[in-house]
Automatic annotation (TrEMBL):
Cofactor(s) needed by this chain: Zn(2+)
Biological source species: marine sediment metagenome
Gene3D superfamilies to which the protein is assigned, alphabetical: Medium-chain alcohol dehydrogenases, catalytic domain, NAD(P)-binding Rossmann-like Domain
Protein name according to UniProt: Alcohol dehydrogenase
Chain ranges of the Alcohol dehydrogenase-like N-terminal domain: 2-58
GO molecular function ontology, one term from the record: metal ion binding
Family the entry assigns: Belongs to the zinc-containing alcohol dehydrogenase family.
An example Gene Ontology CC term for this record: cytoplasm
Length: 254
């Protein structure tokens, strides 16, 4: 039957530029992405360079593995960019597919996780998964944190998240797109060595690290499945914020 492998968002780099040679291939000017530059997840079959295929641990079935290679892998890079500290504190803004995967890693590392999200069902899921605190607004968060990740594409969250960041803390911005960020006050939001870091895609090393750690924990993504023919309905549910965890398209083997 051959090896069971998965395809992530990053599907090609030149492997020759300064970024690639420095282990930062996610910044390669020649990068290509699955579902954008080439067909991928919305199909029964896909072709990938074996160098960009990931062997799937037996710990996961296909439905469990799918979110790890999409939302999970980008979320994992965002998590790394937030400079997490074992036993430290992490704030998560937005609690969708990426966030609920990363929260499991943070908890496994002994971190206390604070979640800010608007949807009642998302707050319920975060609470059930073991969040230290869950709420609708950053202002209500009862403590400042060492690390923070904004998964929601809402620029207005940036100053709010910075106000809840400890001195020397790091804020990671995980989105491909974000609405306009309001003006920041240097003394209030940035001083005392608070860092703001953006995130671009992933490296293959990120993928290998994620799958190894996910299998060790093991991570159990909360999934909602749709048949491939229901892809449009899945997108509408995603747009309407009706999905708890990760939506997965399933190909009928018959």
């Amino acid at each position: 039957a051959g090896q069971r492998v998965g395809i992530a968002w990053l599907r090609h780099t030149c492997r020759q530029c300064a970024f690639c040679l420095a282990g930062r291939e996610n910044l390669c000017p020649s990068q290509r992405f699955t579902g954008y530059h080439a067909d991928g997840g919305y199909a029964e079959y896909a072709v990938i360079d074996e160098q960009f295929a990931y062997e799937i641990p037996d710990t996961f079935d296909d439905v469990q593995a799918a979110p790890l290679l999409c939302a999970g892998i980008v979320g994992y890079r965002a998590f790394k960019r937030s400079r997490p500290r074992d036993g430290g504190t992490l704030a998560i803004y937005g609690f969708g597919s990426s966030a609920h995967v990363i929260m499991q890693i943070a908890l496994h590392r002994g971190m206390k996780v604070y979640v800010v999200t608007r949807g009642a069902e998302h707050r319920q899921l975060a609470d059930e998964m073991g969040a230290e605190w869950v709420g609708r607004a950053a202002a209500d968060m009862p403590a400042k944190v060492d690390s923070a990740i904004i998964f929601a594409p809402a620029g207005e969250l940036v100053p709010e998240a910075l106000e809840k960041l400890q001195r020397g803390g790091t804020l990671s911005l995980a989105g491909i797109h974000m609405s306009a960020i309001p003006q920041l006050d240097y003394q209030k939001h940035v001083f005392h060595e608070r860092d703001i870091r953006s995130v671009t895609a992933n490296t293959r090393q990120d993928g290998r690290e994620l799958l190894a750690e996910a299998a060790e924990i093991p991570i159990r993504p909360h999934t909602v499945t749709y048949q491939l023919a229901e892809a449009n309905r899945a997108l509408q549910d995603l747009k309407a914020d009706r999905i708890k965890g990760s939506a997965v398209l399933v190909v009928d083997d018959s």
